[in-house]
Design brief:
The protein has 489 residues and is α+β, with helices and mostly antiparallel strands. It is built from 18 helices and eleven strands.
Length: 489
Amino acid sequence: MGNQVTRGHASTKKTDSAAHAGNAANATSLSKSSSGTELESNSHMQFFPIESLAKTLSHLTHDEERISGITKSVFQRYLFPNYPELGEKLFNYLHHTANVSTSHMSANSFKQQAEKFLSVMNDQTVLENYVKMYSNMKDDGNIDPEGLKGLLHISYKIAMDSSGTASCIYAGQIINAVIISCFHGKYALSVSFVSNWISQHCPRIIHGPHHYIVHVLTTAYRNGKVLLSKEQPQPHLEIPTPILEQPESIDFPQILLPVSYVWLLSSTLPECYLQVDNSPQDVPHALIAKRLGSVCPRHWALLYNSSEHGTGANRFLHHVLGYRGPTLLFIRAVSPDKDTVCPTYCICSAVEWHESHLYWGDEDSVGIELFPSYRVIEKGAKLLYLNTNIRGYPHGLRFGSNTRSPYISIDESFHSVSIAGAPYPIASLEVWGCGDTKLRERQLEIKKWQVKEAEKQRIVKLSASDWIDHPDRYLLELAGRASYNESSN
């Protein structure tokens, strides 16, 4: 009887456990289905702005052009009044992907293609979409130099407008350097080749246009029927282009680092050279700082300029050592042709400069050719070398993984440079610090302390009793100054 009761309880437990497992499975399936419904609902809410935007554009097109759908002219005027070329390229891309026969798009087609465009999260796919946008989609599908030039120009213009910086006279030159490096004299290249090249040498070049387009498509509906016409305030985005420190000397009007180089380097360099987070740690102050302005200031400070601070290894070391942040060394060589701009290179160090007989540097060390073509030479650890006083080892500054034949080599006098084995006289050297202002202040404090210590070492105060037995007194007497002590008395 007892065994039967025990077996009954055991069977009851098994049944309960099986029922519990079944309920758990049902609960799991319900949770999955509910989460799927929730995701579907969130996805619907996520693209609700696109639906409202499509309706507004469709009403505007019908009122102005008596067409049932959305036309290119309405799309440009009401969404991209400041960048009509970007609006035209985006509309043509959405129209091409929709595969419609008419010159306009229906509201439903526009909604579907815009949602599809915004749903792409892969960086490489986003980049390919923008290269396609500026390619010859209706012809052979390839992109020509003019198409890439248009993509680079709109990226530069959005960055300058967002940062409030005036346009740079060197912008055309640096954009042409990118085109020369990518095309190598060819008239057209495939979209995949250009996308891969950009991904390797300037992967964040389309971040500005993409952020702008996403912001326009998802927020323009809030203004009602006026959308983003010229009467309305235009979107203002914070593009990660660093702010340059202006030189203090009014007698030195020469442009040091053009802002166009800064913009292009911002699309290439690792984040450690761009991001400087000085935001408050507590939430209330962080919210206040966000309302007042940027909580992530980006600031590049000039540490050394050979034209102003003097040439030579000692001058370089004096102004650069002690800065414990990422730095950029710009090397301008004397051009063999006087009518052309100097060949320019950039050595990027994410760690503090120091002298050693070994190569050093972390994974964010980069070497970049800026002119006559723009490209990343090499990136990786242990690419940097600096030695001016250790005997038995090469003196000078070097960059490259090949220790026997480095790609860039500056001699010990810092007057000439060898680039890929070709010697050039140095026109100028510049070093910019990419850390926050506190790092620059600490470096200056250390230098002030070093100067004070050097002054203390120079001034040696001796009493009369100490001077009588001091070795220097006997040396002076041996040198013919026997009456030195008498004259001093």
